[in-house]
Amino acid sequence: MIRFVATRLARSLMTILAVMTFAFVVLRLSGDPAKVMLGPDTPREAVDAFRQQWGLGQPIWAQYFHYLGAIFSGDFGMSMRDKSPALQLVLERLPATLIVTVPALILQVTIGVSAGVFAALHRGSIVDRGVIVLSILGFTIPSFVMGLLLVLVFAVTLHWLPSGGSGTWAHAILPVITISVGWIGSLARFSRSATIEVMGQPYIRTAMAKGVHWSDVVWRHALPNAATPIVTLVGFMVGSLVAGAVVTETIFSWPGMGRLLISSVANRDLAVVQCIMLLVAAMMVCTNLIVDLLYGWLDPRLNARHEN
Amino acid sequence: MNAILNAENLVRVYRARRGPFAKVHPIRAVDGVSLNVAAGETLGIVGESGCGKSTLGRMLLGLDPAHEGRVLFDGTPLPPLGTAAWRRSRAEIQMVWQDPLAAMDRRLCVAEQIREPLDIHVIGTARERQDRIEELMGAVGLRKDQASAFPHELSGGQRQRVVIARALATAPKLLICDEPVSALDVSIQAQIINLLRDLQLGMGLGMVFISHDLNVVRNLVDRVAVMYMGRIVEEGPTEAVFFEPEHPYTKALISSIPAPGRLLDPDLIITGDPPDPANRPKGCAFHPRCSAATEQCRHDAPQLRPTAQKRTAACHLVGTSTQSATT
Amino acid sequence: MSIVSPGKRKNVLPLSVGLSLVWLALMLFLAFFADLLKPYDITTMDLASRLAPPLSSGHWLGTDELGRDVLSRLLQSIRVSLFIAFGATLISAAFGTTVGFLAARFGGWVEQLVVLMADFQAALPFLIMSLAVLAFFGTSMWLLVVLMGFYGWERYARIARGLALSANAQGYAAATVQLGATPSRVYLRHILPNVASTLIVSMTLSFPDIVLMESGLSFLGLGVQLPETSLGNMVGFGRDYLTTAPWIVLSPAVIIMLTTLAISLAGDWLRDTLDPTLN
After folding, report:
1. C240 and chain A: CB distance < 8 Å anywhere?
2. How close are the terminal C-alpha atoms of chain C, in Å?
3. Do B69 and B10 contact (CB within 8 A), yes or no?
4. What percentage of chain A reaches a pLDDT higher than 70?
5. What is the pTM (predicted TM-score) of this model?
6. Which residues in chain A come in under a pLDDT of 50?
7. 254-273 in C: which are within 8 Å (CB) of A?
8. Cβ contacts (< 8 Å) between B103 and chain C: which residues?
9. Is the pLDDT of residue C195 over 80?
């Protein structure tokens, strides 16, 4: 088990390093980093000071280590527009993004998985058919279209909810729904097929033949086994949550990290872009690591294999 | 002797490593094996898992080159693997595999599977190939309407029939079967064994039949060779070996076959685990598990010597005359 | 590819798949002949009739805020979006398959490198990575196609590597060699067709994803740039007029949805016909 954890940890660190290297290379390739990070109308002395600070005159491998050191100490450069440290800017916007993404994640997982499992256990019923149809709709309608439709219906036509901005919790409702809808559909479909497959396994029939109560069969035998493939989806989900946040915050003018990213890309405020990219990567790597460890713990077959 | 196949002192060594930091162990998977198969004769090769019989089968085909020794087919040495001559020789030597599903390209239907060797070796016209396919399908017991079925739509027994039909398409002189019925149900095993026997009689094929299942082997082969840790420890006509086994290993194997109404003889039950090929015991490879082992057995490896009419055994305790122990 | 023997069962074409194929054929036709079909140039402005609703005179789908004909822009958008998606899918498949075969053939550090690249891809949501690249290098059509071309290559790589490895010692490749086939016969007639059908199915899976990805980027203003137009682009610019002139947003949105649905349905059916073992 220790070996498994250690190798996974090592791989995660390698990945983060790869992302940082990627950022470094891309930054160098896109032009003189000083000009790029500081903007065209920065005074000469500031540019020179920056060059000094970042060691831009030195050979490339020295710059690389300098860069890594800067990142690890939290220095991602200065935002061109705001003239404040990029990290600080990003962290300021982080809570707003969390307010929409975390509820979305909870909603996705609870509604999606339970709908799927329910549909699997009641095959052929209305719920089952409904789940299938809704899930197809869910992954066909892109999130930006969904967001606009929701605005059209709930804000413009019904006037129940505001169409954008932030301030009250009512402002957060549509963004949360927009982010979660697509994944509710996918999770429902996936949970449904995972549960169906597990229920068809011989050990379920054995349990029932032994006289185990139906609910025990479901809760103690079927679901823990169905959980494993579902857990692997979690990694993808978290990644797409971030992507979903970007689009949704734009539609609803929600002042989160996603909108900051878009405006930074449009303005070529590369320090901020780099900062967000690295933070997101770090978060994803951690999530994938946790998912892998969880997966290894849940499925004893994998444990045994890794112990050899 | 009109032997279709001669194997002389075949040796094949694998270099295996326990872990990335352990020493490299050479493992002698096949360690000096010689055998002959005559036209129209079936030779069985039996042994436990890991004794090297599958490797030996591949060496007889030429799929695994021999590190020492050589294989003669119809009097001439086998061409090296990968040459055009080797490919041509496939029309004469064919193989029946253990897992028929894995041995077939899943995209091709039955007729296409059987047709492939005919296409490769350019045998006959299109019409003639079609006729041959029908003839072969009938010979192995497949129905005509199964010609368009796919491997995954057939049962295990039917798949193996397809593999056999495919192997026989070019009318080979030698057929090597590596555990062809191990993956099948017992009732189907009997059918396939009977099929192989009928085909062999009808076509005058030489056959090598590799198996770990003694019951299966007994019903099919003319002569049997028993393998242990890469070497042949006993060889002879089937009934003789089964009725009066000479080598202690053979005795134990045969006595372990369950027979209704007869209790197993506790003295002959083999003790211990199958050996680790990387850790070969000194002297006779079987001595740690042999209840009759002597001091000599611990130091000298016995050679395969003739013990009776057409029989050989590799054991210090078996003499060339009457000292063969009977059960 | 697969050799059909006489008397083989014909697969019945379900209605939904038939409709999907018809729709896709229509989209391809429109994309090809967009130049001939569009009534106006995409930049022509009819300032007298701005924000005209559909079926107004001279404008089947109405006009946008600058008086540009929506139908013309829609046809051009279909062409641009499909072109990007096709190009990207092909690049992704070619790159992924090659990398997968190399990993299977050489193993060792080549394989480790590929695993690292795949891990890297998994660490960054594709949207975020695309945004970063676009920020650093600016937005050009070719960059966009190449960028989209990195979407989903891991899937092809994994398939190609898996199939190449499994067609060895115990598999049909070895059996075919034992039948006497030359290596080229083994590759061309057996391994490649087996890989191809799975690859094509994978391509139909990632094609709609790429369409959605490009639409998303264009919607955000960072994909296809003016004066060129794409489906996502149109939705993005039409956003401000959602209440006053919803047709500007709805027409490209409907096209996106129906096209991705059609590809998904057709792709599932294609998988069932090409690969008789999966059902």
Report:
1. no
2. 19
3. yes
4. 88
5. 0.68
6. 303-308
7. 256-257, 260-261, 264
8. 170-172, 175
9. no
